[in-house]
Specification:
Blueprint lengths: L36 H12 L6 E7 L5 E9 L9 H10 L4 E8 L8 H17 L3 E8 L5 E3 L17 H5 L17 H5 L7 H19 L7 E7 L3 E5 L5 E7 L11 E6 L3 E3 L5 E7 L3 E12 L5 E11 H8 L21 H16 L18
Parallel strand pairs: 3-4
Antiparallel strand pairs: 1-2, 1-3, 4-5, 6-11, 7-8, 8-9, 10-11, 12-13
């Protein structure tokens, strides 16, 4: 039989496989653990403020808002840094990030966001919603002076809405038709101004108000040393939590002074950085301004529902910090309750038990005791 021609043999086609992996660069070092967005921002502020050109950087966070890594996305000119949206999110996707922070530096020292800064931030927020990696904040750092501008704190754009309001074409568009040399970015998009912000828990709002008040008190007392009071409390009374913008707080409960009072305990909130562990590791302490006030929340019984369950209403009041110290440390001056003496039956001593045992044994061995009657054995049948 004739051999088959080589042209009839089947052809094989090749599809190449590529591998995409993260490569580590030069790390940044800190004297403190970088375990919160605030600590990461401190490290990045010190690094980015040295640049003489605009630099755009991303800090990736895990689901617990702890920093994973950072990535320098682009290095631009003196007053301009161009970066595409996919490049900004690329490191977060490869790092399996749960969220991220956006940072860039203005070498001039003026931290006011430009029109392009605001537009880019809105696009990044929308892209993060689509990919499930939300942008927590965009922070502008001043070159040389280390000043900063937080778009979240200043409410320049909306970071809280979960509604996608841009198309993919709008997000990936590189340039806007509006001029980019305009500074003073406090305007808001129409769709952002129409949205309703997500509800913020009361304790987060209280903590933010407390931080703002402490910052204001720090500015007024910057010229002189202000007096502080120390509050000591147990670890079981402290409940740390993290707000949506990555800041860490501690909710501290105040036990009721009357032990018979079974109503829920009052509480107040402090920044976690002001709460410290004592030298024995068994308790906590915090320093607060002696002449300041703190918001204390106390649940108060409002009534009962149709099923007879209690309805509690949180009542807030500003308590002077000296009074707050006495409330938290009331356990030091609390007199112990007198315990009623227990009426117990008189216990028999070991000597009495031994005497009773000897007496009982003697009675059993006494010869005067009549002998026990012997039982008659049954006789079997006679053989």
């Amino acid at each position: 039989m004739p051999e088959k021609s080589k042209a009839a043999e089947p052809k094989h086609y090749k599809l190449k496989e590529v591998c995409i992996r993260l490569a580590e660069g030069h790390p940044l070092y800190s004297d403190w653990p970088i375990d919160s967005p605030g600590e990461a921002i401190k490290v990045m502020r010190g690094e980015l403020s040295r640049y003489d050109r605009e630099v755009l950087c991303v800090v990736n966070l895990n689901t617990r808002l702890k920093p994973i890594n950072f990535n320098v996305v682009s290095v631009g000119e003196l007053n301009q840094s161009i970066a595409s949206i996919p490049n900004i999110l690329k490191a977060g996707i490869l790092s399996n990030a749960g969220s991220f922070l956006l940072l860039h530096v203005h070498p001039s020292g003026d931290v006011t966001p430009s029109h392009d800064d605001i537009i880019t931030t809105r696009k990044v927020i929308e892209a993060g919603k689509i990919l499930g990696i939300p942008c927590m904040d965009h922070i502008i750092i001043g070159g040389g002076n280390r000043n900063y501008y937080s778009m979240r704190e200043e409410k320049t754009v909306d970071f809280t809405s979960q509604t996608i309001s841009m198309t993919a074409e709008d997000i990936l568009r590189v340039r806007e038709t509006k001029p980019s040399n305009k500074r003073g970015g406090t305007e808001k998009m129409a769709e952002n101004s129409m949205r309703e912000p997500l509800p913020v828990p009361d304790f987060v709002r209280e903590a933010e108000e407390q931080m703002a008040k402490e910052a204001q008190e720090g500015k007024t007392a910057a010229s002189g040393q202000r007096e502080e009071v120390s509050i000591k409390f147990g670890k079981g009374l402290a409940e740390p939590f993290t707000s949506k913008d990555g800041r860490e707080f501690t909710r501290i409960r105040i036990p009721n002074q009357d032990s018979k009072d079974k109503t829920p305990w009052a509480s107040f909130v402090l920044p976690s950085k002001s709460v410290h562990e004592n030298q024995y590791g068994k308790g906590l302490w915090a320093k607060i301004p002696a002449d300041g006030t703190t918001v204390v929340t106390k649940p108060t019984l409002k009534g009962q529902d149709d099923k007879g369950r209690n309805i509690w209403d949180n009542v807030k009041r500003n308590v002077p910090n000296r009074e707050l110290k006495s409330m938290v440390e009331a356990y030091k001056t609390r007199t112990p309750q007198a315990r009623e003496p227990k009426t117990e039956a008189p216990r028999e001593s070991a000597r009495e038990k031994l005497d009773a045992l000897v007496k009982d044994t003697a009675e059993k061995l006494s010869p005067d005791k009549p002998p026990k009657a012997k039982s008659k054995a049954k006789k079997g049948p006679e053989l």
